[in-house]
Amino acid sequence: MRDTTKEVTKKTNVTFLSPIIVGLLFFTFYVLGELFPDYWWSTHSSHFLNPVIKYSIFLAAFFGMILSLAPNQIQRLVSIVKVPNQFHSSTMWLVSLLMGFLFYQFPMVADYYGEAYILNPQVHQTVSKVSQVAANDLFSFGLNPWAGQKTIIAFITYLAFFTGETIYTCILYFDAFFGFCFMLTWLTFVNQNIKDGLWKLILAISVGFAPFLLNFYGHLEINAIVLWVNLFWMTLFVRYFKNKDSKTLWILLLVLVFSLKIHAIALLLAPVWLFICVSHYFKQSNPTYSITWSKVTYFVLAPVFALGAFCYFFVFKDYNDSRNLAHTVKEYDHLFLPIVSPEAPLDKYNLFSFNHIFDYFSELLLWSPIALFIIAVIVISLRKKINWHREELIVTASIFIIFATFFFVLNPLLSMQMDWDLFTFPAPILLVLLVLLVKQIQEEKIKYKVLPISMAIGILTLPFFLVHYSKFDLSLKLQSLGVRIYYTYYEWSSQTIHNALILLSENRQYQFERKNVILYKLAEDALVGNDREYGLLWSKEGAYLLDYEKNPSKAYVYLEKGLTYSPNDNYAKLLLLESCLLLDQNDQAYELSLQLNQDKYPDAQTASITRIQTALYAEKFNEALQHSSDHLIQWSNDTVMRKINTRLKNNDKVEELEKMFFIPK
Fold it and tell me: Membrane-spanning residues where (predicted)?
């Protein structure tokens, strides 16, 4: 006879211990971020905070974990506080308005994430006239990857024009408004689907402390409206399953079209809507019809993945992509990560590399770690209490699978660390999935263990927000991200480090020291002759030393070092050439000019003139005569060069010809 007592005891232990075990696992992720910040990049923000603040955060979070071992005391406390089971509409509006106020009042001190670099140069400008390009972008419709961005930028341009505010202020309005909409939509959805007041509180916390909310804190991107529309569509989608009315179905289509206007990612929702639409009208003639996992797999997932594979291998052919971003890419270039690794130094990152898999796992922790924790606990402890065959759960889970898979394959053009904002788009779907799961287990007493751990994880996410309100702390964070990018994705690492150091410009000595620390740190793994990113770190410092500190001798060292690692960097060659002239190293300047002329850099005419100029400074008069003659063949109207050519032919005071060029000493 089977011993049922042991089985019950075992199940009870699993239910009792799983929240604290999973919670401590999440706690460990943040401890690892503190100890190894260059690796655990999504949980490392505490490492850059004041020690008193960060250790207080860890202590408070650990205390929350321990509280979960006393669920009966938590239950008594909740009964005393009397958490209401129904959110009043005024409460939801007040909380949402408060969050909107926080989004507006506490924007990031600097923003280099995603494509913020496009808007950064112009954010403090006002708009006195709206261009025809902006009008076309706002009212046209396209499905290419950049169409949505152009639409939102055009909208913000119009907003700045009509309000007279700067573009930056209008972006703050934009982010705060849609952040408010997001919170109100979320709280309303939770209130409509969850009866238990404690679970409503937990679900509110799961979003209030979610790292992806940084998208609403003055982020110079279009993501605020995309996140809200995705959430709104999903909540409307779940509502459809309550009554299955045609009206809601067609409203979903209208919202989907609007979603496509603001971001092409909404295309991933189209197959699901089409499937639901067909199912809706098929059920009218066949009342016994129901949506099942097999139907969704056969009619949605399989076709979507088959089409995706076809596009990946035969349309975009990204399976063997170079990933090289040395030149500006077109909107359909490098869309997906390759399976075949490119050549070094881009060989450490491909679709199935450990670096990408770990980065994607790290990205998940920027969605909602509380939501992930709760889902993990439900799957481990309460999975048998879940009806996994409910139609809305099947379809929502399928949408999440499609989104999660798409973003796994998608190429983070600026690296996962700097493009993290784009990769949070599946977060609203995850949250809706969470509600559908909690809805079925809300009567379980496990909630008294989940509450303190959820609050603890929420506390652990605070450093992610706090670090973005201090230039110094954010600089340290970005430096760490830049190092991580260099060792993994590679592209955009030097720019990330450069942006990080810009934030230290008020303390030039410390900025210079940090730059040298990073250069020394990466030196061991740098590839001589084939390391553009490492070379750029040297040459950008050389450019600063030359242009701002007027120190050509020091600049010479950094620029020459940069070219050692990135010999094809023509901009560095041009700056080194200028340094050589200022240091009277004219022969080397001439050799550099020959290389620049061969590449026609920065343009053919300027390169030709520079070649003649350096030949004169190096007293290579025969070469200067030949170069000036070649120059006049192409630019015969250049009167100054004709005079130089004539004097060279006549040997007329050729030593003084260099005075016709101005070199600031």
Answer: 12-32, 52-70, 91-110, 146-164, 171-191, 197-217, 224-242, 248-276, 296-315, 364-382, 394-414, 420-438, 450-469
Q: Output the pLDDT for position 8.
A: 45
Contact between 614 and 590 (Cβ < 8 Å): yes
Q: Is residue 152 part of a domain?
A: no
Rounded CA separation 113/123 (Å): 15
| Domain's final residue, options 469, 488, 521 | 469
How many CB atoms neighbour CB 132 within 10 A? 7
- Cβ neighbour number for residue 615 with a 10 Å cutoff: 26
Do 600 and 640 have their domain in common? yes
Return d(Cα 639, Cα 413) in angstroms, integer.
Answer: 47
Residue 81 corresponds to which tokens in the numbers above? 């506080």
Task: Report the CATH number that the domain containing residue 529 is assigned in CATH.
Answer: 1.25.40.10
Counting as low any pLDDT under 50, the low residues of the chain are 1, 8-9, 328, 664-665
User: In the numeric block, which tokens belong to residue 475?
Assistant: 């600089």
| Residue 381, CB-side half-sphere exposure with 13 Å CA sphere | 25
Q: Are residues 338 and 350 in the same domain?
A: yes
Task: Name the residue range of residue 642's domain.
Answer: 471-660
* Residue 364 forms part of a structural domain: yes
In a shared domain, residues 465 and 475: no
463/505 same-domain check: no
Same domain, 446 and 498: no
Long-range residue pairs from 418-421, CB within 8 A, at least 24 positions apart, any chain: 418/112, 418/113, 418/114, 418/481, 418/485, 418/492, 418/496, 419/113, 419/114, 420/42, 420/113, 420/363, 420/366, 421/113, 421/114, 421/212, 421/214, 421/215, 421/219, 421/221, 421/223
Angstrom CA distances, 549 to 2, 502, 541, 573, stand at 83, 15, 11, 19
Measured in residues, the chain has a length of 665
Residues 480 and 627 in one domain: yes
Write down the pLDDT at residue 1: 47
pLDDT (0 to 100) of residue 665 = 42
- In the chain the first and final C-alpha atoms are separated, in Å, by 98
Among the candidates 469, 486, 510, a domain finishes at 469
- Structural domain count, the chain: 2
Q: What's the burial of 517, exposed, middle or buried (CB within 10 Å: 0-12/13-18/19+)?
A: exposed
The predicted model scores a pTM of 0.93
Q: Can you tell me the distance from the alpha carbon of 218 to that of 662, in angstroms, rounded to the nearest whole number?
A: 45
- Short-list 586, 626, 585, 630, CA closest to 604: 630
163's tokens: 């309000």
- Both 195 and 308 in one domain: the answer is yes
